[in-house]
Amino acid sequence: MNYSEKVIDRFKNPKYIGEMENPDASGKVGNPVCGDVMEIMLKIKKNKIEDVKVKTFGCVAAISTSDVVCELALNKTLEEASKITKDDVIKELEDLPKEKIHCSLLALDALKKAIKEYTEKNN
Amino acid sequence: MIVRYVKMQVYLDNAATTQVDEKVVKEMERALVKEYGNPSSIHSKGHLALEILDDAREILAKEINCDISEIIFTSSGTEANNLALNSLDKGDHLITSELEHPSIYNKAKKLEKEGVEVTYLGSDKEGFVKIDDLKSKIKENTKMISLMHINNEIGTIQNLEEIGKVCKENNILFHSDCVQSLKKEKIDVKKFNLNFASFSAHKIHGPKGIGALYFKKNSKITPLIYGGGQENNLRSGTENVAGIAGFGEALKQDFENKKVKELRNYLISEIEKNIKNVKLNGSRGKRVCNNANISFKSIEGESILMSLDMEGIFVSTGSACSSRALKASRVLLALGLNHEEAHGSIRFTLSKHNTKEELDYVVEKLKEIVKRLREMSAL
């Protein structure tokens, strides 16, 4: 697979992959049939994402994109984080093979699911 | 491609292709530079090239127990497979399986569109077709049964002798894709009652771009390529003399099955000893000497493959994420593996060039990689 150096770097040294104790919200998406499962966990204070972690079962692109989505979401308000697009993710990684673009969408789905869960719980 | 410093390079993808032997290269060079004539030419320069074809044909014929007139050289195993199935006509019934290589499977799909009826047999959990199942699918218009000898993904050795008997009893043509079995398992076209069999050079330390089809005398064959009538009017185009010379020489070399098998057994036992939650796919006993296909639970194959690649270790995977279609291996699913297991599968295929030291390095790296990816996994 022809990945950019940034994708490989992320895959080797992810910054946000790991466990989180008592998250304020979490979003799990994907299924083993398509080969990707991601769970994003958030700590939220005053409507702002103060901490974020992700766990990913999937390919190099799935691991890299889920890590980047966490980075883009950190320190953003829930509204700002909801507006992150796949193009933002791809830009951060320089490039993504065409057949892997769905991985970036999946990571965003996980983030949006977590935000939705939090919003519903707190409104 | 990103080049990194690695302790060593370990090539474990010999079912994909193999390193060409030096003796093979020498023979190919002789054909290219010295005996460069066209085998169809009447003059002696042409005749010398023709001799190279005859020599290679004789070696292959001896290897599989057929006559030299029963071999056609092709551009690949894929072409040989396509050619074998090409004689089927509208209304004929073909029985093949879910385990076949794409060059059979996709050709069968194409034939279906042209009016050939096709039945795809399933598999038991080790990769064997069930003989009773096969027998039950035979119909009046069943013209051919095409089942591979050794599966390229899981290495299971199909019982061709038993299948051949069924074909003979029912007067059905029998084709087998023997690309992965040549030199690794004994192939006897008479004993197996084969009408057609496909071969390829680059899986046995020969060059890419050359294959062969065995066809029993007087078989009906519909060519795929028309032209100058080479290869007994069945495969036109000036012969790939250098490729054929290389194929012949590769056939003379020792694949060192015993050594390869010992190394492979060592790799399997070391992985099973050192890494938890792994599963050997295919058959433990009736398995080609150089294949180990292993699923690593709760992690995904492309991530493992790329991590190994970064350490200089080259393997392949049945995961969807590595395929353009984003589908998990059809073969592994046919065995009854769930999607998670299929996505987490890695195929290691060895050769005589591997060493125990290399395998120790692989297991050491694999341990680290599996641990890291499992810690990251959402499953």
Principal-axis shape of chain A: globular
CATH C-level name of the largest domain in chain B = Alpha Beta
- Coarse shape of chain B: globular
CATH architecture of chain A: Alpha-Beta Complex
| CATH domain class of chain A | Alpha Beta
Give the helices and strands of chain B as they follow along the chain. EHHEHEHEHEHEEEHHHEEHEEHHEH
- Named at the architecture level, the CATH assignment of the largest domain in chain B is 3-Layer(aba) Sandwich
Q: How would you concisely characterize the structure shown here?
A:
The complex is a heterodimer of chains A (123) and B (379). Chain A is α+β, with helices and mostly antiparallel strands and 123 residues long.
Task: List the main descriptive attributes of the protein structure presented here.
heterodimer; A: 123 residues; alpha+beta; Sufe protein. Chain: A; 5 helices; 3 strands; 45% helix; 22% strand; globular; B: 379 residues; alpha/beta; Aspartate Aminotransferase, domain 1; Aspartate Aminotransferase, domain 2; 2 domains; 7-stranded mixed sheet; 4-stranded antiparallel sheet; 13 helices
Explain what you see.
- The complex is a heterodimer of chains A (123) and B (379).
- Helices cover 45% and strands 22% of the residues of chain A.
- Chain A is α+β, with helices and mostly antiparallel strands.
- Chain A has one domain (5-121): Sufe protein. Chain: A.
- Chain A has a three-stranded antiparallel sheet.
- In chain A, strand 1 and strand 2 form a beta hairpin.
- Chain A is globular.
- Chain A starts with a helix and ends with a helix.
- Chain B has 379 residues and is an alpha/beta fold.
- Chain B has two domains: 10-19 and 255-376, Aspartate Aminotransferase, domain 1 (Alpha-Beta Complex), CATH 3.90.1150.10; 22-252, Aspartate Aminotransferase, domain 2.
- Chain B has a seven-stranded mixed sheet with strand order 2-8-7-6-5-3-4, with helices on both faces. Chain B has a four-stranded antiparallel sheet with strand order 9-10-13-12.
- In chain B, helix 6 (160-170) links the parallel strand 5 and strand 6 (173-177).
- The longest helix of chain B has 21 residues, at 44-64.
- The model of chain B has no long low-confidence stretch (mean pLDDT 96).
- The A-B interface holds A 1, 3, 5, 8, 11-12, 14, 17-18, 28, 31-39, 55-63, 99, 102 and B 2, 298-300, 302-303, 306, 310, 319-322, 324, 326, 328, 338-340, 343, 375-379.
